[in-house]
Design a protein that fits this description.
Distance between the termini: 9 Å
Shape: globular
Structural class: alpha/beta
Strand order of the largest sheet: 5-4-3-6-7-8
Number of helices: 16
Strand content: 15-25%
Helix content: 25-40%
Largest sheet: 6 strands, parallel
Radius of gyration: 23 Å
Number of domains: 2
CATH architecture of the largest domain: 3-Layer(aba) Sandwich
CATH superfamily of the largest domain: Glycerate kinase, MOFRL-like N-terminal domain
Amino acid sequence: MSVTQGSTAMTPAPLQKEEIRTILLASFATAVERADAFQIVARHLPEHAPSRVLVVGAGKAAAAMAAAVERAWPARRLEGLVITRYGHGVSTTQIEVVEAGHPVPDASGQAAAARILAMAHSLSAEDLLLVLISGGGSSLMTLPAQGLSIGDLKALNRELLRCGAPIAEMNAVRKHVSAISGGQLAAACAAPVEALIISDVTRDDPSAIASGPCAPDPTTYGQALAVLDRYAVAAPEAVHLHLQRGAQGLLPETPKPGDALFRRVTNRVIATPHESLVAAAHWFEARAIAAVILGDTVTGEAREVAKVYAALVREIRTYRQPWSAPVALISGGECTVTLAPQSAAGGRGGRCTEFLLALALELEGQEGVHALACDTDGIDGSEDNAGATLHPDSLARARAQGVDPAAALRSNDAWGFFHAVGDLVVTGPTRTNVNDYRVILVL
C-alpha cells in the first residue's frame, strides 16, 4: 500500500508488532461494545407495561441487562432477580443479582432458579414477566427436574463440556433434565412474557440460547439420549434413567412449537454475533483495511478450523486471491475442543487459544500475518483470559523459552503457550456474550 504526494510515491513505514496488537485489540473492543447491554436494552423495552413487572433472567450479561432496565425505567417500581456468573455482577437497586457457578452449576444457581420459578408462579394475567437472557444461562439458572439432584447435573455438565458436542446438542440434554429450561419458565406463569435475548449461538435461535427458558423446545427426550450415546457421555445413572423414562412417555415433554402458551410470549433477540462482526469490519474499513466476514456460524474442532483458515491465508499471501492484502478476515461462532487424555495432566486454555496455536503451527511463522481470537464474555476456557494474539514470531519466541508448540497443542495447553510468550489478552468480565471473535490480519 502506498500514498502519493505530488509526483513522489512514498511507502509508509511497516507497522510494528505492538501497533498491530493494538489494532487487533481495538477491533475486539468494538465488537464487544456493539453488544453492551447499557446501549441496547432500553430501546427494546415495551412502551406500555402494567403496574407490576417482574424482572428475572440469567446469563453472563444478566446483571448488566438488569441495571440497564433500572436506568431506562427510573420511575417504575420493579422487582425480580437475575443470576450471573461469579465476578460478573453489577450494582442494582431494585432487581436482585445473584452470582453462581459457570460452566458447572452450583447450589447458588439452583436456589436462585427455584426462587425465579416461584416468582413466576405468583403472576397474574394482568402482570408482565420480563426475562433477560444471555449466554451462560443454561448452567447459571439450573433447577434439576424432579428426581434429580444438583450433583447429578454437575457431573453431567462436566462430561458434556469434555465431549466436544456442539452447544445445541448439549442444550437438548440440559433442557430435559431441567425444571425451568426449554420453555418451562414461560409455562410457569399466567402473565404475558417479554424475553430480551443477547445471542451467543449460531443462527440466534432463542430455543438454544441459555437452553431457551421462554422458547418452544423442538428437541425430545429421545434426542437427548442420542446425544449421550453419540458422544459417549458418561452421565450419572439417575440422568440416564430420567431420560429413558421421558423417552418412554412416562414424563411430560417440554413445551413444543405450536403450543398455545407461546401466544402470550415474545422472544426478542436484541444483540447478535453477526452485528458485532459487522461493527468490527466497519472499524477496519474506516482505517483503509479491507474487511471480510467469513461467517458468524463457524463451528467444529478449533484446530481443524485453523487448518482451513491457514489455507486461505496462504492463498492470499501467494496469489492475492480471493482478496488482496491488507485484509482482515473476521469470523465468529463457537468452535469446540475435545480434550485429549494427556490434557488431564495440566493442559489449560480454551477454544480461542487452541485455534490460535493450531493456526500458528499451520502457518509456521508466515510473515505479515497476525491474529486475535477472544471470547466476547472475557473468559476463554479454564483461565482468566479472553483469548490471545498471534504474531509471526510467536513460535520462535516460545521455542526460545523451551516451549514445544506441538506438544502444547497435543495436551490442550494453549494457555501455557501464550502465557510463555506474553500474548494473552486479559480483559476481565465484559458482562456480555455474543460468542467468539476471531480476526486474521494479512498485511
